[in-house]
Queue: 2 jobs
Job 1
Amino acid sequence: MTETTKQQGAPAEPAPTGWARLPMIPGPWETLVILWRRLRKMSTALVLLFTLALASIVATFIPQEPAIPQTVAQWRAGTDGPGETVASMLDAAQLFDVFGSWWFAGIMVLLLVSLTGCLVPRYRAFARVVRRPPVAGRNLERLSNHARIGTSLAPDDALAEVDHMLARRRFRRRGLDADATASGHRQIAAERGHWREGGNLLFHSAFYVLLIGVAVGQAFGFTGQINVVEGSTFTDTRIVYGAVQTGRYFGLDDHRGFQVRLDDFAATYHGNGTPDAFVSRVTILEDGREVMTNAPVEVNHPLVYDGMKIFQIRFGMAPHVVVRSGDTVLFDDRVMLGDSDNDGVWTGAAKVTTAPEQQIALDLVLLPSFDVDQQGRAITRGQEPDNPVLFADVWFGALGLERAVGASEFIREGEPVAGTTLVPGRTSDELVGDLTVEFADLPMWSGFQVSHAPGRWLLLIAAGLLLTGLTASLYGHRRRVWAEAWRNDDGTTTVVLAGVALQRKVVFAEAFAGMTEHLRTALPAAERAGQEVSLEAHHG
Amino acid sequence: MAELSNTLFFTAFGLYIAAMVAYFFRMAFTRATVDGVLASTRAGERAGIAATGLAVAGATAHLGSVAARGIAADRVPWANMYEYSSVMALIAVVAGLVVVQRRMGYGHLMGFVLAPAVIMMAAGAMLFVPAGPTVPALESYWLKIHVTAMVSASAIFILAFVATSLYLAKDTAEQRVAARSGQRYAAGTVGAASIDLESDTAKAPAGAGPAIGSPLELRRVMSPVWFGVFPAVFFLVWGLAKYDVVRGMSMAPVGALLGVAAWYALPYLPSAAQLDALAYRLTAFALPIFSFAIICGAIWAEEAWGRYWGWDPKETGSFFTWVLYAAYLHARATHGWRGRRAAWIGAGAFVALMVTYFAVNLFVVGLHSYAT
């Protein structure tokens, strides 16, 4: 979007006559034309870019709902951030979801219109310029870079040598006969560096490809998350996933329906407790038939199957808890615990019975590497479950378990009626009445993101075009070189080499010096060299 | 190996400071004569040789430190903020020595190249962590590609920022000198526009340079007070915000000293036009690398997190920085924006880069919060 300002000079309007002179209110068409002209201005594009930048600062410092919904909820409730009133104002301006807001979309559309407005005329101009052969030069020795070289070769042979040199330096060349030049000598006109403008156009056009790629991904893509315990299976259908983001054109039927069984999850740690690797091993089944066994899913190494990508995103402990009343099994499940503070303390809840007024729930805390510190407090030495201990608090009564709330939420009023501490394989004594809790064993659970992301190759192409275009436009520079040769009276030949660069003049001056140097060695010197071999290269 | 790396790090740190002082000495022992020619005295020449030697020795020790760190940790040694800062400083110094001093011949800029390198190393040292393995999310060959590109681009952007801020100072001085001598043309801004761009309209007439009277005039028209106060306040605020009162108070004089050094250096710096061209070339070099780094980051994010772009604070920050650098390039090609306005945008883009690097890692919670 460089140098559009030059094209802004609108042709002078004919002076209005008669009644048209009076009202200066532009009509709808004129308004459109004025807006269009304004949008095409470089300064408008700059202002739009700044607005875009401003929007992204705002989004860095105001919590964004798609990224951290919990914090946004706290801001809205007034428990965190600047208070409820401010939060509602922020909400009104869609500042909790800047990148999904209508005004952000508006800026993007305006930028795109501005871009199109800049690009269309420049495409036309570029097409014209590229097709035009190199133009003849005149007054070569007045150009900022020029040199005279004397040689014993005939003018045509000398020019052939120059032509060869320019060809090696990848100039586009055009030979001009003596009657086509102002000086009356044969000339070679050469030109190079259309890549600057070409790269510029390529770079800016790549944004359209990028946009299409993003749109395809949005419209035909799907992303969902699912947690599974070791030994369990999930089927690729819409209902099993949480945190679903689905495109308009990814329907229920587009789910593949294959099954994924988590055979094993392993988290390994270095000696100092920092994690080393998280690996899930899964089996993929189609209609109960194993089609892929022992396939690893790792951080940075997603598993691809049938157009769906399965990513390892989280993991946790899932103690197998059995609750019995006498010999009746009330609850037998593996409870997925979370480590929300990332401190090695795994917490969660088990909702045992949902009969009204008779509800039972357990609050579970698991320390994977149980120890007692000097103050007598229970701690965990590390993340690895080498000495797991489960603490279970039993709640009884109207716990609100019939409500549809989060897995670990229920009404905790008063105190738990009983508590117990268990190691794997142990069953508690009778806690309340004949209620017992067994900690059978400690499997792991693994959290996957499953996504279908079409159009990625378009994004890659766009990225490639962006980079190629950007580099070309920043390094390319247009330069023209001319050479003329004529025979002197004494039989020697004089070659004049001249050139100008529109950009990067210092770099060109060096290259030009290199060219003259090359010609001085390549062309056999004239018999009577003397003053003819004066090399003057003015850099400017 | 980890011990050796730390020792070499602080050796390099000391050598850089010594080299910086020597570069400033070199300046002090260079005479600026009336016709604008800089004449080095013998002491100045010696100081210059010593400075270059110290800087090269420092860079060598620094390289050793980075290599030892890599061997100790058994991975690429730029995976946390300490290492990243260190490598960024190293690349900035090496690029400064090779490009700014050797290729462009702007030796007097080197003191100002070493200063941010030293500051970067100091800031990095405060985030020191022992050499060790990284979390699984970072164990990918994309770490090598993405972070290497990012650290290189950032280092070049440091140099560009040095050139930009000195350009702004020098340009102000040149314009004031021109205004006082009754000239209409301030060669600085106008010349800058004609050096590397398509504009043919804005060429200063021959001989309308700022070299009217002594180049020392450049210093006389500027007040050293403001040169000291601005960076001092900036460093104070930075220190207070990030560390504590003691560090804030001790950082302020460093800023003041650097600012006054820039004031003192005004006659010795390349012309405003040259500084602007240098800043532009450096930015133009770094921006494709920076873009490449962001693209690699997106590919890596797709591999690791299952989405290529999620407006994570770091992603937002780098987008913001990229937009500002793009605006800088556009501004340099737009009438009414090139010169000082564009330079301010460039400086702002660098601030955005630093905020994205430091603040987003340390203050804002996001997926890139792996400072320690």
Note: Residues 320-442 of chain A form one domain.
Job 2
Amino acid sequence: MAYVAVKGGEAAIAAAHAWLAECRRGATDVPALDTEQIMGQLGRAVDRVMAEGALYDRELAARAIAQAQGDLIEAAFLLRAYRTTLPRLIDSEPVDTGAMRPLRRVSAIFKDLPGGQRLGPTTDYTHRLLDFTEPPTPAATANETAPPANQASTPAAMPRVTDMMGAEALLEPDQAGGDTPGDLTMEPLDFPAGRDLRLQGLARGDEGFLLALAYSTQRGYGHTHPFVGELRVGEVAVSIAPPELGFAIEIGDITLTECQMVNQFGGSKAAPPQFTRGYGLCFGHQDRKAIAMSLVDRSLRAAELGEAAKAPAQNDEFVLSHCDNIEATGFLEHLKLPHHVDFQSELETIRKMRADILGEAS
Amino acid sequence: MKGYNFAYLDEQTKRMIRRAVLKAVAIPGHQIPFASREMPLPYGWGTGGIQVTASIIGPDDVLKVIDQGADDTTNAVSIRGFFARTAGVATTTHTSEASVIQTRHRIPEVPLTEDQVIVYQVPMPEPLYRLEPSRAATKRRHALAEYGEMHVKLYEDITRFGRVAVAYDHPVMVNGRYLMSPSPIPAFDNPKLDHMPALQLFGAGREKRIYAVPPYTAVRSLDFEDHPFHPGRADGVCALCGAADTYLDEILVSDQGDKMFACSDSDFCEQNREALR
Amino acid sequence: MNTLTPGFATPLQAQACFRAVLKAMSFPGAPVELPGVAEPPAALSPAAAAILLTLADTMVTVSLPPGAEGADWLAFHTGAKTAPAADADFVVARARPALSTLRLGTYDEPEMGATLILDVPDLDAGPRFRLTGPGIAHETLRRLPLDDQFLPEWRALAAKTPLGVDILLCAGTTLIGLPRSLTMELL
């Protein structure tokens, strides 16, 4: 059989892209997805893509989800690549989550507290019964009366639980320092990494990876004795202070989820014990991500707090090198690329080694 | 391409990479960290090579992109298309016509010249990574030029298999100082790195490292006096052009596993076939 | 009233200048023509000005020869901050500073060693040297406009390799690169 040198890579790619476009659209007698629908009705997906894409823009995230056919890591990649092209204008002032008017705010450490336990639009107490009604009915338990469709009253500002505990000094102080934090996107990570860069890495880290690491700590791989001091979800204002103005101006609001974890107390006979802290913060409404992030943050402080650091979640190089799912999937999926040159050299090596052994045996 | 800077990257990123490249050339074989950007191609698919090429390339350059030695493999097509779109630069499949060659896993058979730059795509820039996964630890090894572990590993291969078992990405010593990964090129290509007249740049996007081998620099594959380095190659001849000294791809031609060989370097093979006509 | 001279007209000029600097560092000792800046500030040669426009920005620090004009020009065109010569990433000088007083890098991060941009009147002057090492096929023999103290200082740094300083010698629009990897001997 005559072998012809293979050409046609270009044509193959063009054909693959055309087929992909058809699959993405699906049956043309079914209405195409609308970004408004995705933003409005798949909000949790949008939040996750914004967090892992490291870009707060609900519409762009919704667009990316549609383009990625619902593959959320692919969507986050689209957003991250778009982010690279945007000019960096200015760093904002730190957001004040204490000034948040939370639509959701719960604390596991006190039965009641100023501002109250406010459940907000949570799935926490839903019964996971797949709903077959059209249109879907709101989740309800047997004795519930239907609650108002949305809580129209403006939530009040609520002081942070952790600030309220500060008076008795039972909790280590918030470590916010005056220094300008490092910027993970401007310098590659070096280890050991400072807490500022660790938190930035975790904030954009894969939810599944952080979930698994956090879970591992709960099961004994570096247990940190965690209690949710406070979980709050709501809008915060973003401000910038342009040098020309000399003062700060608000430019918009974003929704954030913040988790303050209260952990294993440190201290000794000499230093009075205090509870220690873990911190999680992410875009949108993502309880799971914020809680997982706070557990992993606390675990990564093991060395700083004088704890033996043996578990995976306590190893900053391990956690931070592997939590970016865009890097991870890129390298994982690159295994699909041609590797026949290297495989050929392995074939030759193994053939020669076998010939040496089998040749000697005969 | 409307809305994007020349070759996609913004000028600040290019400057950052250009500064890193110049230091890399001054310190042959040393890996320099850089703030790698997300590119429209995935990490692991050549973003480091692409960022280096995008930072050096100009409108007068002629670009060749190869993967596994061939211009027509899918990812090479994709990357070449990326530069044609974002830089409008002339592209070629002929090695001798190119001023910049971006490559994955092979060095062209035709010797390169002082007027050329070859940019390697590198998946794992750290030559010690299989022995020590922590970069914090390997950084110290390089600082102290402590490379004993690698010698031990190679020697263990010899005692176990009778030969060094590293078929590709065989580590090299550069300018007598730094242990370097030449990227996953087959051992057959290692000798080409030594005293090459062209500048060799290495980009690892996901791992965020750039390194370089200047022209005419000593690059020595790790070996032992009693077990010298052996650049292996299939014992065969190209079925298309008859070459007996090029790196060959093995191609299965029947369900029973019959095979034939063809030059991995598609341009070199084509030039040979032209010459034979 | 301060009138600044212009920088590059397009980013492609920076690319062309960068390739020239890359060539100078890749082939040490070989003069390279730079597409210079037409009207550099008085403190700088066209080559030195072009190099700063190409490589300096808000992420690096520069030490300049004394005089306000250069500093204003640098701040306007690049946003780079000035710093003392002992700390700066790029040191621009007409009078050669002692190399050991510049940043040399560390064994972990030798790339932190400074780049010295040395403006000289004439590149074809000074003692004759033999140059060997990376970038040079066998050896290069040429004059270099370097003072008597230079070689002992260069040798002292070479003993601490890979720490060191990388030098760009500039005269008008011509450039010669002396990376720290270069071995130099007096003829």
Note: The first helix of chain A runs from residue 9 to 25.
